Amino acid sequence: MQIAFVESAPSSPGGLAVFAAPERKLLPQAAATDKAVGGAIAAAMAGGRFTGKQGQIMALLAPRGVSATRVAVAGLGEGKDLRPRTVEGVGGALLADANGAAQKKLTLLVDAPPGSKLKVEEIAARLAMGALLRSYRFDKYRTKEKPEAKPTVAGLTVVTKNAAQARKLFAGLKAVADGVFLTRDLVSEPPNVLYPASFAQRCRQLTKLGVKVEVLGEAAMRKLGMGSLLGVGQGSARESQMVVMRWEGGKRGDKPLAIIGKGVCFDTGGISLKPAGGMEDMKWDMGGAGAVTGAMMALAGRKAKANVVGLIGLVENMPDGNAQRPGDVVTSMSGQTIEVINTDAEGRLVLCDVMTYAQKNFAPRAMIEFSTLTGAIIIALGHERAGLFCNNTDFSNKLRDAGAKVGEKLWRMPLGDAYDKLLTSDIADMRNVGTGRDAGSISAAQFLKRFVENDRPWAHIDIAGTAWSSKGDDTTPKGATAYGVRLVDQYVADNLES
Ligand code: BES
Ligand code: MN
Ligand code: ZN
After folding, report:
1. How far is the CA of 442 from the centre of ligand 2 (A)?
2. 259-318: per-residue pLDDT in tens?
3. Which helix (DSSP H) or strand (DSSP E) does residue 15 occupy?
4. Phi/psi at 479 (nearest 5 deg)?
5. Could you tell me if 163 and 6 are in contact, meaning their C-beta atoms sit under 8 angstroms apart?
6. Using one digit for the tens of pLDDT, what is the confidence trace for 338-373?
7. CATH superfamily of 2-139+147-161
């Protein structure tokens, strides 16, 4: 979709969208449009349910007196309640509405509602961002889609005062959307196409943006003693990989933020095999690695003034004659030994070695790790929020605040010695699962915590419930959400760049 910011409306706008505030208050360009159509908007409002509440849309079909093919009136909400994320939601809803009505072009006539906390150029840029995010499709494997089933809007024109400033704001957001789209692509790809080596190959493309990309194969990881990660990939015909992506946009010598992701390109459970029903979902068990890769693209794309290193552990968890067995003991890069009780608790086995590598090589100022780690987090939080496990309250609050701004919500979960005890093994330093099903997400987090060195700020974000959406929302079509990309971007902007 082409997106342009201009100061005055084009002569053939296609579908037009204008804005209202609550209690049927038309904003200036909506009022002017109403005048041009002979008061049809006001008349339709008077007789209908539309009041200008945030998210509401009312359409005027075949309008007389304007060159538009259709007029949509959208509720922006009360000026004092406007937030960037809610404005994005309105933009997303308008795009979906225009596609539903088979419009080829969409033109937004943007005004700020009275008392708006956001400037008009920010509203304009956020509307465009929401529409862009909503426009995502993964259709490369459809060969027979009927034209009428495809989205129609090919051009979005945003008419606003201060168009130049809006364009500039949008350029930064567009870089983030590019990162989101990369993540959605990676997460959507089928597991026969996206496996450790082909995933690593896609990461290499970030070098174009100035990211330094290094890929380690099994031989290199064996030398480093990453026995825990390698054990997981041992039953797969595909070679395991670790990818290290460095963005150095900050001061030289400033310790980087490390972002770490679980990249299980397919999780069968291994010898502790999962049941068949729904197993295909485990193609997106690399959602954490996908988010890290997209976040690196976003930061590099907008040239963030910060040092950030992204590290992802890529494996495939398969049952095989050579697969690791329940009962095996592996030695992690940290030197700690692990009794593998359940080969389906593989994510933590991958992540612990990546965490150790990150700390030994980069001494990061903090670590944020994303993983589709446990089904139990879906039981606890559903699909609304990701579970946040953190050893530092200030860090945890900052992550929560960043997430709230971009609509990637977090809920902090507890940690503690009593949970750690669940991991006691009879023959090794720890077992890879707790006993029974109690506190499954917390025991997984406690496992990871054993690999945090020097009490450095560490956050584990369990995205098993949020990496994929079966229903979608105002800015996200159903499918891969790219949860985590915007959270990292916002956290970096608010805490490392300012
Ligand atoms: N990848 C799964 C977790 C998962 C489940 C992600 C559902 C997304 C949706 C993970 O590797 C796993 O299998 N976890 C087990 C842990 C158990 C064996 C302790 C689980 O959650 O059942
Ligand atoms: Mn598993
Ligand atoms: Zn898994």
Report:
1. 15
2. 999 999 999 999 999 999 999 999 999 999 999 999 999 999 999 999 999 999 999 999
3. strand 15-21
4. 115, -145
5. yes
6. 999 999 999 999 999 999 999 999 999 999 999 999
7. Leucine Aminopeptidase, subunit E, domain 1 (3.40.220.10)
Q: How far apart are CA 271 and CA 342, in angstroms?
A: 8
Q: CB within 8 A of 230, min separation 6: which ones?
A: 218, 221, 222, 240
Please determine, for residue 157, whether its predicted confidence score (pLDDT) is greater than 90. yes
| pLDDT recorded at residue 355 | 99
For a ligand 1 pocket test, name from 232, 343, 344 the mutation site with the most ligand atoms within 8 angstroms of its C-beta. Answer: 344
Regarding pTM above 0.70, the answer is yes
CA atoms of 321 and 47, how far apart (whole Å): 71
**What are the strands, taking DSSP E only, across 22-64?**
25-26, 57-61
Please pick, among 24, 53, 204, 274, the residue that the annotation labels catalytic: 274
Retrieve residue 444's tokens.
């997984």
Active site residue 204: no
Torsion, Cα 347 353 356 358, to 10 degrees, reads: -80
Convert the pLDDT of each residue in 162-202 to its tens digit.
Answer: 999 999 999 999 999 999 999 999 999 999 999 999 999 99
Contact 183, 485 (CB under 8 A): yes
Strands (DSSP E) found in 277-361 = 307-317, 329-331, 337-339
d(CA 123, CA 108): 11
- Residue list, CB under 5 A from ion ligand 3: 264, 267, 285, 347
For the chain, give every domain's residue range: 2-139+147-161, 176-495
CA-269 nearest atom, ligand 1: 13
Q: Is-contact 263 245, C-beta < 8 A?
A: no
CATH of span 176-495? 3.40.630.10
Ligand 1 atom nearest to CA at 434? 19
Ligand 1 pocket, CB under 6 A: 267, 285, 342, 344-347, 372, 374-376, 433, 440, 464
CA dist 405 → 51, 83, 87, 88, 398 (Å): 26, 8, 12, 11, 11
> Is-catalytic flag, 348?
yes
Flag whether pLDDT at 147 surpasses 90: no
